[in-house]
Amino acid sequence: MTEATPAPAYRKIALIGLGLIAGSMAWACRRDGMATEIRGYARSEKSREMTRRLGFCDVVCDSAEEAVQDADLIVLATPVGVMGAVAASIAPHLKPGAVVIDVGSVKRTVIEEVQPHIPEGVHFIPCHPMAGTEHSGPDAGFASLFDNRWCLIVPVDHTPDAEVARLEQFWSRLGAMTERMDPEHHDLVCAVVSHIPHLIAYTMVGVADDLSRVSDQEVIKFSAAGFRDFTRIAASDPTMWRDVFLTNKEATLEILGRFTEELFALQRAIRTGDGEQLHAYFTRTRAIRRSILEAGQDTNEPDFGRTR
Ligand SMILES: NC(=O)c1ccc[n+]([C@@H]2O[C@H](COP(=O)([O-])OP(=O)(O)OC[C@H]3O[C@@H](n4cnc5c(N)ncnc54)[C@H](O)[C@@H]3O)[C@@H](O)[C@H]2O)c1
Ligand SMILES: O=C(O)C(=O)C[C@]1(C(=O)O)C=C[C@@H](O)C=C1
């Protein structure tokens, strides 16, 4: 006997911005038979054309207003810097009872910019899937992106709990685990685990590029795993990351301040030959990596094809 497929959490879904995250959501919805219709819109004609070809939307519209007509769930999946303007343009076309979510990497500024446009009777529930790659655009998406990844849900005041619970169920059907968080804490956590690590990768790759005594050929030829990981991260979309830093100024500047203090302390330890300090520091940080592995939180641990 085949089990009945559970009813879709939302019948009609509208995706605004057709890139890695929207594409992955659409593919994951299709994998699970989760929506009766997925409509999409992106500002660039090239992205709309590519989405038509890839086929992850049932309908690709030529305006955001058209895409959100009659939608039960509207997903803002553009760079965070334009979400306020997108919300303003779709607001008059949202039906009562609809749920609007964003998937932006920053929450406090997005809430400040989007919430004022949301009409009464429509629920805005900010989200942030902690999953991605360095690739962008409609062809970057894939169905398993959210499998076993966290999606942070950042409900604003007065959102009925039943609506938040319905959305959590939706993310769990996309494969993700969910946790609720307040916006300030979200922005600080993401500055630590995502935003500043990206800035460091961008900087290190920039330094390698600037160093005239080391040729580009040598950088490419002798890149070992650590630096290769930096180059992967530093290949991420410039528009997305510009917007992340401009909209999460406070938390990223706080963490960057602490980072540079630690860096200067290590710089001094190297200069003065303080091996004890260096060893103690590296021992402390190794323990963090080990606890991530023990908690089973790194599903990307490479084995480099090791054999014995
Ligand atoms: N890439 C990641 O790793 C990742 C992970 C989690 C969350 N996010 C967040 O998700 C959002 C989307 O990221 P992505 O990686 O899918 O980006 P992407 O670059 O792959 O796609 C963005 C899409 O938005 C469209 N767009 C840009 N401006 C627009 C506008 N004014 N109106 C309509 N469409 C517009 C682009 O044409 C493109 O189709 C961002 O806010 C990002 O912070 C990204
Ligand atoms: O895996 C990657 O390439 C990512 O950069 C994904 C990543 C991250 O920093 O972990 C990037 C931005 C997001 O907002 C969430 C996830």
UniProtKB/TrEMBL annotation:
It catalyses: prephenate + NAD(+) = 3-(4-hydroxyphenyl)pyruvate + CO2 + NADH. It holds the Pfam family PDH_N. The keyword Kinase does not apply. GO terms for biological process: tyrosine biosynthetic process. Belongs to the prephenate/arogenate dehydrogenase family. Signal peptide: none annotated. Residues 11-300 form the Prephenate/arogenate dehydrogenase domain. Keywords: Amino-acid biosynthesis, Aromatic amino acid biosynthesis, NAD, Oxidoreductase, Tyrosine biosynthesis. This is prephenate dehydrogenase. It is an enzyme of class 1 (oxidoreductase). One of its GO terms (molecular function) is NAD+ binding. Pathway: Amino-acid biosynthesis; L-tyrosine biosynthesis; (4-hydroxyphenyl)pyruvate from prephenate (NAD(+) route): step 1/1. Its EC number is 1.3.1.12.
